[in-house]
Design goal:
Elements: H1 5-14, E1 22-25, H2 31-34, E2 43-47, E3 60-63, H3 66-76, E4 80-81, E5 91-92, E6 96-100, E7 104-115, E8 120-126, H4 133-139, E9 144-150, H5 158-164, H6 172-192, E10 196-205, E11 210-212, E12 215-218
Antiparallel strand pairs: 1-6, 2-3, 2-6, 4-5, 7-8, 7-10, 8-9, 10-11, 10-12
The structure holds adenosine-5'-diphosphate and magnesium ion.
Amino acid sequence: MNIHEHQAKDILKEFGAPVSNGIVIFSDNEIRDKISKLKDKEYVLKAQIHAGGRGKAGGVKLIKNLSDLEIEAKKMMGKILTTHQTGPQGKEVKRLYIEEASEISEEFYLSCLVDRETSTLAFISSTEGGMDIEKVALDTPEKIITNKIEIKDDGPNKDEIDKIISIFKFDADQKKTASSLIKSLYEIIMKKDASLIEINPLIINKSGKLICLDAKMNF
Ligand code: ADP
Ligand code: MG
């Protein structure tokens, strides 16, 4: 089973991971009522479909004000979005996620995948965030590291976490957040029985803060 980005982010939030505030709408009429829940004046409008590659296909839009948000939401709702992951028939956009816009300083990739046969988790980390990871693996494999850890009661230890984040040049605070994020991913896998969690991109914003800007979860 596959869930939408906004649902995956709700789970991340529930487990203490850093995600931005957002609202989900099923009709553009809902914007006026719900928008006050967001603090920012700039938004990102994101089509919720079960496929990635939305950014390049017009399914992720930076919006500067409320009236543009209403115009663009009207355009995006009900549209058939075709990305490299939807197949040529595309997917209809039936819900939208409106999220506070982040000022991105750097984009990374972090995912966690279960191998039930060997009772291990593979964490994949890359400095090439926001890209298709298969393409990064082909073109610049040196920018990806995989770390396998054993599934055990007390979760990943400090050594394992240090290895997973070793490819990122994080400062002490960022390391703390990343370490807690990795523990959260581990717990989600265990408690929600997820088989894959992919954060792409995981970003550092202009204030140096780590945020999960996109999330995919499979069960
Ligand atoms: P997809 O993977 O389907 O293309 P993403 O959610 O990863 O969709 O969005 C694509 C790109 O849009 C991201 O790599 C990021 O650069 C930008 N983006 C997404 N969400 C936000 C946000 N809240 N604020 C700023 N930029 C964003
Ligand atoms: Mg993405």
